[in-house]
Specification:
The chain is an alpha/beta fold and about 280 residues long. The protein has eleven helices and 15 strands. About 30% of the residues lie in helices and about 25% in strands. The chain has a three-stranded mixed beta sheet with strand order 2-1-15, with helices on one face. Strands 3-4-5 form a three-stranded mixed beta sheet, with no helix packed on it. A hairpin with a 2-residue loop joins strand 3 and strand 4. The longest helix has 14 residues. It is globular and about 45 Å long.
């Protein structure tokens, strides 16, 4: 099941978040910031490809520098919306009932109270979902709690595949959607960071899936942070221009067999925020 609509939040306070930097090796403090222009360019590219971006401006009373990444506080399902606990206190201000009301989505499950216990599960950043086969992949980290993921799977009727990683600097990768992506007939994963190779075997041997393995360097350039969508003009694979430029030609040909590549340059967002295109998109079903 692929989405044709995505929630996007245009940021007004985008910047470096010191509260998340300790667990996100992809962040760096940089005074150059073209996030608004990059955001608008991506939204237009998706629209041109037949995907409907549902855009909200960052709330005036939200101080978070990371509001551009809504997939961490909410995920949408046919039944309704699920809310999530986030590590950064600043980011907790991103949760918005007005967006849910505008989309006609009721809250079917709210995990945000686990913030009081310092336990976190940051939406489809922490979880890569195979919505067709009902698998939920989670690389465990300070921002992706194993037991919360298990509880989520029980509630949403998914099978949990949890695993440990060793990423850049020998620390766990902060979010699973950096390690890889799963779509219809397509699985992208970075084998180098996965500790349990039995999990890797599952990634690469699922029936009817073409598996594309990426290197650590490709992962650090957001080749795993991509999203397959299905719009009015057919399937697309959304990614950043940085990711596109780091895929090998043969990998790009394989990806193009699963959708038209929509690549947009977002260097400020990736460099300062430590996230890429997939992080900016919350699928709306």
């Amino acid at each position: 099941m692929l989405a044709s609509r995505v929630l996007m939040v245009r940021p007004t306070r985008f910047g470096f978040n010191p509260e998340t930097a300790g667990t996100n090796a992809f962040q760096s403090d940089d005074p150059s910031n073209e996030a608004l222009a990059e955001f608008d360019h991506l939204a237009m590219a998706l629209s041109d490809a037949g995907i409907e971006p549902i855009i909200f401006d960052q709330a005036p009373d939200c101080p978070s520098p990371d509001a551009i990444f809504p997939n961490n506080w909410v995920s949408f399902h046919e039944e309704g919306a699920v809310l999530y606990p986030m590590l950064s206190p600043l980011r907790r201000t991103e949760r918005r009932t007005d967006i849910l009301e505008a989309l006609g989505k009721e809250i079917i499950c709210d995990f945000s109270h686990f913030e009081q216990d310092a336990r976190f599960l940051e939406g489809t950043g922490s979880m890569v979902l195979d919505r067709k086969e009902k698998f939920c992949f989670v690389c465990v980290s300070d921002r992706s709690d194993r037991m919360l993921a298990f509880q989520w799977c029980q509630r949403m009727d998914f099978r949990l595949i949890d695993f440990d990683t060793l990423g850049p600097g020998g620390v766990p990768v902060y979010h699973t959607n950096v390690v890889g992506s799963i779509g219809e007939g397509l699985a992208v994963v970075c084998p180098e960071v996965i500790v349990e190779k039995t999990v890797l075997n599952l990634f690469t041997s699922l029936d009817e899936y073409e598996a594309i393995s990426i290197t650590m360097d490709q992962m650090q350039n957001f080749c795993g942070n991509i999203l397959q969508l299905n719009g009015s003009k057919g399937k697309v694979i959304a990614m950043s221009e940085c990711a596109r430029s780091h895929f090998r030609p043969d990998q790009l040909r394989s990806l193009e067999g699963h959708g038209a590549i929509v690549a947009s340059p977002i260097p400020s967002i990736e460099r300062i925020g430590g996230g890429s295109v997939r992080c900016m998109l919350a699928e709306v079903f």
